[in-house]
Structures are given as C-alpha cells and as structure tokens.
Amino acid sequence: MxxxxxHIELFVVTKGHAFSRDKLEAMLxxxxxxxTMVDQPAATVLLNPEHMRRYDAILFYxxxxxxxxxxxxxxxxxxxxxxxxxxxxxxxxxxxxGMVMLHHAIAGWPAWPxxxxxxxxxxxxxxxxxxxxxxxxxGYLGDVAYTARIADPTHPVxxxxxxxxxxxxxxxxxxxxxDPAIHPLLYLETDITPERFYSARRAVQRLADxxxxxxxxxxxxxxxxxxxxxxxxxLVYIQPGDSEATYANAQYRQLLGNALRWVxxxxxxxxxQARIAV
Length: 278
What we know:
Elements: E1 8-15, H1 21-30, E2 33-39, H2 49-52, E3 57-62, E4 66-67, E5 77-78, H3 83-95, E6 98-102, H4 113-119, E7 121-122, E8 128-130, E9 133-135, E10 139-150, E11 164-173, E12 175-176, E13 183-188, E14 198-199, H5 200-204, E15 223-230, E16 233-238, H6 244-248, H7 250-263, H8 266-277
C-alpha cells in the first residue's frame, strides 16, 4: 500500500464526454497522483486484476456503452459491454481494487445493470423501472453556482474540508439507489427547482433543445458524493467534476485527493469489510 508521502499510481479511464485532458491531468498531479490516462475502448480490455496490479487505484471519468450515432429517435442506443470487461470488472471488485467514479461515469454501461449497482446510482438517458418503481430519465444543468454541504465531516474523504463548498459546475438530476451501503459524503444545499434542468433524453433526440420535461424525482435525493462497498472494493462517487473551474477549485482538489488516497489504502479496505459484515 502507498505511504502518505508517495505518489498514487493512478489508472484513469476516459472518453465519452468532453473534457480538458491537460487540465484534468494537471489537477491529478497537483493532488499527488501519477496518472496513466487511457481512453475507451482500449481501457476496457485492461480493466482486470492482471493489468491493474501496478496501480493503487482506478479513476473512472468515462461514459461507455452509449451510442450517440444511432438514429435520432433511438439515441442513445445501449451497447452491451464485452465479456472481457464484465469479467475483469467483477474480478477487480472481488480483489478489492479501490475505485473513484467521477461525474459522468455514473451514466456508463446502462445495458449492464451490475455496473450501476456497483456505483450506487445511475444517470438515465431513458425512463426506466428501478427497484420496481418507474423512474424518469435524468436531467442536467450546466455551469450553475451552488453550495455543497459536507454530510460526514469525520470521514477521511471529507477530512480538512469546511462544512460548505461553493462550486460552479454541472448538476445532475439522477437516480440514487435506495441502498443502505451508501454512505453520504456531500449534499446539495442550494435549492434548484426541477424546471431548471434540461432533459438528457430530449437533448440527445433533439427535441426542443432538451426542454419541456419535468422530473418528479429531481431534488428528492440531494446526495452529491458517497462512499460504498462495490464487492470488496472501496468505491467513491463524486458528482461534481465537469468544468475546468472545478478542477482548479482548491477544496474540490482536496476532496478528490482525499478520495483517491483513501480508496488506495488499508483503512478503506477495513471500512468495506466492516460494512459487509453488518
């Protein structure tokens, strides 16, 4: 395991959503990481215990399994992950590899439900039935100023942070599973009305610029970041992470750096085993 003064050897999975590669890498280096950035689909065949052995943790900043080139009315088409990925990902969870899922990674592999279960939530491009209940497709609101409140100041991921963090970033109205294993780390404090969000489904299908569709559940769950076991792996999901302004935010950098260091170390492994045992 890494020592506090050492760099984190970090495997970073990218592609599927626009971002500044240089700025992302600069942020990761600033928080003590040595990143190896690999785009999808190449990363898919590498995500297994054998190829990940040299890395302390994996950062997912990708959005695979969605075909935005399908006929407009069918966008996005859902693509099944290859067998090498599902087997490799499940093996990584069994082994206990630390993972951080960032921002749009929560939309990945919608045709393979265990992926969303591992994360603890899902950004939905279509209406769906989840946990036996109908769920509306998700919404987004770009470059909005909001305040996030620390949910658990005693957790290592939030260590050293103030009680509130001011951000300007893209917000999601997405689904978070009713899972007792989810440990909230960050809440949305600012009231954002559902009517302000744009429909992801309508946007990709070019329907009225994404407008005109309310979200009955938008705002019902205000968790912005959480930790949970994913098999034997410590996993942290952090919704903020869309913009260069967020990359440069000192408190956000501390949050992300804390998360990456925590999932890389023995305390997170012990935390996972304790929660599994309950």
